[in-house]
Amino acid sequence: MRLCVLGSGSAGNALLVEGPEGPVLVDCGLLWSELVARAKRAGLSLTGLRYVLLTHEHADHARGLASLRRRGVKVVASAGTLRALGVRGLVAEPGLEVAGIRLFPIPLPHDAREPLGFRLECAGLRIGVVTDLGRVTPPVLESLKGCALLVFESNHDLAMLLTGPYPWPLKMRILGPLGHLANDEAAQALRALRDWAQTVFLAHLSQENNRPELALETVAQALNGWKGHLLLTYPDRPSAVFASG
Ligand SMILES: [Zn+2]
Ligand SMILES: [Zn+2]
After folding, report:
1. pTM as predicted
2. How far is the CA of 19 from the centre of ligand 1 (A)?
3. In the chain, where are the structural domains located?
4. What top-level class would CATH report for the domain 2-237?
């Protein structure tokens, strides 16, 4: 099993998991040609892609959907996300299997119709993918226990957001319970998951209101003494490739 975050943040989100029966995408905020180029750059391939799991309908997660559907790729999402996008697809029911990967949806607090995170299970490995959430609620935390691999939102530094260039209403939206997670909120949640997590990708970092080294430092401090791998994701290029088995 290999996993790579092909792109992350408001410029476009997409994550590639190589399942036992072919590749699966989580989100497609990039167009097909860009997805193919980034997969290749990471040493992976989209050949045989049959499914894209969508977390929600925001453009940074769904921009490339039409280009995927033209290639016969099936959409898996919540009923609300399918409705919001006006597309047919499979409803992400707990235990649904795609390309040999079992998925469990995690309802998230975010300002979309019915946003989800996902827990993916494959060959004894549990992977948690959680971005675009205003708060880490107890059920979200509960769903991620046991995940050895996490892709977790660390969107902004609170002080940078508050003093930054965004208009006040947008700042309030990001800070609110249906917005995005701050570095210190991500750090606290990851601290609670440290007994299980062995590799953590920090995701959906804001280019205006965060700095990669600040996100890393905040989380690393909270995980003091943790023996795992803490990795970044990028708006313009693929992350490192996680490989197991
Ligand atoms: Zn987003
Ligand atoms: Zn969103």
Report:
1. 0.97
2. 24
3. 2-237
4. alpha beta
